[in-house]
């Protein structure tokens, strides 16, 4: 097993020892690592001094436990002060310090030890450097709890090795442990080889002008149409041009109300002007989305290598904005509405179009959508998705939203 020894002098020492090892042999190993003679070493565990003849297992020392080593160069002359040090630097059973102020002062007084702590455990080093003793105690308890959890997991894994091979429950646990081990290994490999996968992906924004008003445009090749919010259209002086005959509902991953359409208005990209049409959406969280219709019309290229968007077959090139140049409200998760996102966006394929006072209303399909909740086939889909851990209500809502499409409903549930 592995134990960590925090010395009173220069370093944090990690040792691989057997649980049946005696304290005296551990001190011998520490003498090699720390150059402190065995006679001057005083090992503490949970505030109690460890006798040379005791075995680690008998003292309750487990894997990843923390020991403290005091160096008593004049042990006989300083017996009383040594006893006080044991009392001050001891640890409670829950991992907290008996005297947190003395513990903090002791660690602070050793610059080398603090340096190693900042390298190996920055959070603990920070609270030791601070003045909040309650937070220090909380962190120490947390570290103790983490070690206890790891110890229990290792004990459970060891118990499974000796489990009855014909015990169904034991085999189920072994299967779960093997699966979890594979997940953990995959996670560790991702941290090593693909760490950027755990970072937030900044969406693509460029500077544009719409009818002379500067905007940060969200470039989304997965959205069918270019979208502008009602408030943004009003700010750009375009709301008066909105054709309300094109009202309806934008369907995608979620839905939003389409207020109408602005058929043409000038946008400025770089130093050039281009005609653009917009779907006006009732979406206060999103101002302007440059969609696939205009990307195609103006022969735009999204160049992720050079981090630019070219327009007009290369006549204009504008850089994508860095994170510091994007307003913070655009960086919040969910600031771009799901119905306008690149995940299955179908704007504006689901809108209601009014012409000559005659309504061609795709929402008349609602009764058909409701009928998908009837019958054994729909119930089977509910049961299958329910096995993934989602509530029946959430599953029914997702299936109705995607008209019974099981795969799209599952993607929506996992994405939510």
TrEMBL record:
Coiled coil stretches, renumbered: none
Biological process per Gene Ontology, one example term: proteolysis
SUPFAM superfamilies, A to Z: Acid proteases, UBA-like, Ubiquitin-like
InterPro entries per record: DDI1_N, Peptidase_A2_cat, Peptidase_aspartic_DDI1-type, Peptidase_aspartic_dom_sf, UBA, UBA-like_sf, Ubiquitin-like_dom, Ubiquitin-like_domsf
Annotated Ubiquitin-like domain residues: 1-76
Location of this chain's protein in the cell: Cytoplasm
Domain Peptidase A2 positions: 215-294
GO cellular component, one term: cytoplasm
Main location: cytoplasm
Gene3D superfamilies reported for this sequence: Acid Proteases, DNA helicase RuvA subunit, C-terminal domain, Phosphatidylinositol 3-kinase Catalytic Subunit, Chain A, domain 1
Biased composition (Polar residues): 357-374
GO molecular function: aspartic-type endopeptidase activity; polyubiquitin modification-dependent protein binding
Protein name according to UniProt: Protein DNA-DAMAGE INDUCIBLE 1
Organism: Cardamine amara subsp. amara
């Amino acid at each position: 097993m592995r134990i960590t020894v925090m010395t009173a002098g220069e370093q944090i020492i990690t040792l691989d020892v057997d649980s049946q090892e005696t304290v005296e042999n551990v001190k011998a190993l520490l003498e090699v690592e720390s150059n402190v003679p065995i006679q001057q070493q005083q090992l503490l565990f949970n505030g109690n001094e460890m006798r040379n003849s005791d075995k680690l297992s008998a003292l309750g020392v487990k894997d990843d436990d923390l020991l403290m080593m005091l160096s008593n160069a004049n042990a006989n002359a300083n017996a009383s002060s040594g006893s006080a040090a044991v009392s001050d630097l001891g640890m409670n059973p829950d991992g907290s310090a008996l005297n947190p102020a003395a513990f903090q002062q002791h660690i602070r007084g050793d610059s080398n030890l603090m340096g190693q702590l900042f390298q190996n455990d920055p959070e603990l080093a920070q609270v030791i450097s601070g003045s909040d003793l309650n937070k220090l105690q909380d962190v120490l308890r947390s570290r103790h709890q983490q070690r206890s959890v790891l110890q229990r997991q290792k004990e459970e894994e060891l118990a499974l090795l000796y489990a009855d091979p014909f015990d169904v429950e034991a085999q189920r646990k072994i299967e779960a442990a093997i699966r979890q081990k594979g997940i953990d290994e995959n996670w560790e490999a991702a941290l090593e080889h693909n760490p950027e996968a755990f970072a937030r992906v900044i969406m693509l924004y460029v500077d544009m002008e719409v009818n002379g008003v500067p905007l940060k445009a969200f470039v989304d090749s997965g959205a069918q149409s270019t979208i502008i919010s009602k408030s943004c259209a009003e700010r750009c002086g375009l709301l008066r041009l909105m054709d309300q005959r094109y009202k309806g509902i934008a369907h995608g991953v979620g839905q939003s109300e389409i207020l109408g359409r602005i058929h043409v208005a000038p946008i400025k990209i770089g130093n050039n002007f281009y005609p653009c049409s917009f779907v006006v959406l009732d979406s206060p969280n999103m101002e302007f989305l440059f969609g696939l219709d205009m990307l195609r019309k103006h022969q735009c290229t999204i160049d992720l290598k050079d981090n630019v968007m070219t327009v007009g077959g290369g006549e204009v090139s504008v850089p994508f904005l860095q994170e510091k140049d994007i307003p913070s409200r655009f960086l919040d998760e969910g600031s771009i509405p799901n119905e306008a996102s690149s995940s299955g966006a179908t704007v504006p394929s689901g809108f209601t179009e009014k012409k000559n006072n005659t309504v061609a209303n795709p929402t008349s399909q609602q009764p058909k959508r409701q009928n998908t909740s009837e019958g054994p086939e729909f119930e089977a889909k509910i049961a299958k998705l329910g096995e993934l851990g989602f509530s029946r209500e959430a599953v029914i809502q997702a299936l109705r939203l995607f008209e019974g499409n099981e795969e799209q409903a599952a993607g929506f549930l996992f994405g939510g």
